Amino acid sequence: MMQATDLYNLDLHVRFITAKHIVCSPHWKIDGYILPFNKLYFITDGSCVLEMDGKTYRLRRGDMALIPRGKKHSMRYTEKKHLEKFFLHFTLELPGGINFFDTPDFADSAPVVSCAGDFDSVFSVFSNLFSNHSVRNRLALLTHLHAATLSAVSLYIDKKMAVMHDGNVSFSEVIALMQSTPGGLQLKTLADMMFLSPEHFVRKFKAFYGISPMKYYDRLRIDHATAAIREGQLSLAEIAESLGISDPAYFSKFFKKHVGISPGEYRRTCHKKYVMFAEGREVSDS
Fold this sequence. Notes:
Shape: globular
Number of strands: 10
Number of helices: 10
CATH class of the largest domain: Mainly Beta
Largest sheet: 6 strands, antiparallel
Low-confidence stretches: 1-5, 273-286
Helix content: 40-55%
Mean pLDDT: 81
Number of domains: 2
């Protein structure tokens, strides 16, 4: 298994492309992007949703997410509060032009890791990408940018390796079950997957993701519901049933708690927002 420190010893070609710390508007959205480089996000405030490989991931403050080059992905804003994030565009290739993140260690695993417990140190590493204003020599500047890129990527890999190899079953498998089962999962079922007591499972999950497993699950369920409403193929009753909710009043209350408006109000706004995006007035991070 690849270790993060090995990045500095491998025959790798790294190329920094661009990086920025930005504030997105409430209407920010990217839809079906395919990029010729890797993209690393670090969320510094607010939250958003990433859709890739048929799965949905919610990114919150302190999360990092890696989108490998060539991967079709969509992202959207999820809260009324503004969204702040670093993004880093780069390439990292093995000999023969092979993308480092297409190797077996990464190709089939979840792209999101939590750095909530190390927020300040990770923020500092990403900020280092911009601490080059006094570097006037081009070669020195490129060296600084490449080293800062490797440092940020190394942090991501360290966290990812910890998540992937914690116990006999990785958290990525638990998350995959949550994503594929939007209704009916119990805490004990998830804890049993990792051969842990529910209490121990909750502590370990919160240490990695900064949130309890059932709160994380509820947010995935809401993401499932909002996606189904936007698609417009199911009634609100059918969507509630897919979440394991038979009481319409409870579904409305559950939805409004997380989204801020009722399911019916959300459905009425979807077409209007779609037209606005179709006219090309969305805000993207390029």
